[in-house]
Task: structure prediction
Amino acid sequence: MNTKHVPVIQVAGFKNSGKTTLIGLLVESLSRQGLKAAVIKHHGHGGVPDRVSGTDTDRHILSGALCSAAEGEGAWEVSITRDAAMNLEAMMALCRQLGADVIFLEGYKQAPYPKIVLLRNEADRKLHSLENIMACGGWEEPEAEKGQFAFSLERYASYEDELMRLLIGRCFNG
Result:
């Protein structure tokens, strides 16, 4: 069992704020440094997340399986139903077991982990009321609250080194 400390970073924002884009960029940056990232996305659009309809995995789930997994050439596709004893903490434990060095949460705004908040406009500034914000970004560089690092997704490359220092310092150096 993997018992090492695995830091968790949330990326929070409203729909179309750039959460998936930022997580992809951060995962690429960390991967270049030899770190393995896991991503857990909150499906906040209502309903059950999409599955590939008509596949054997889908048929197993529809027949009542708690989970169904398919493997091919070492890659896994896993579906877990709501009847399984799975919640965010259990999924993070699974990510740790799989060897993740860092876990990104996309969404889960109210969870207590260090956050990067993405703002689309002035109305989104209400997200500054969330706890544990370490950075604030957007397609255009937003005005950050005191003590927060501010960055632009549009110009990510010019912020990447400083953002990586912030993440690695916060995650791995306390």
In short: The CA atoms of residues 12 and 123 lie 15 Å apart. The two ends are 23 Å apart (CA to CA). The chain has a mean pLDDT of 86. Helices lie at 19-32, 56-62, 88-97, 156-172.
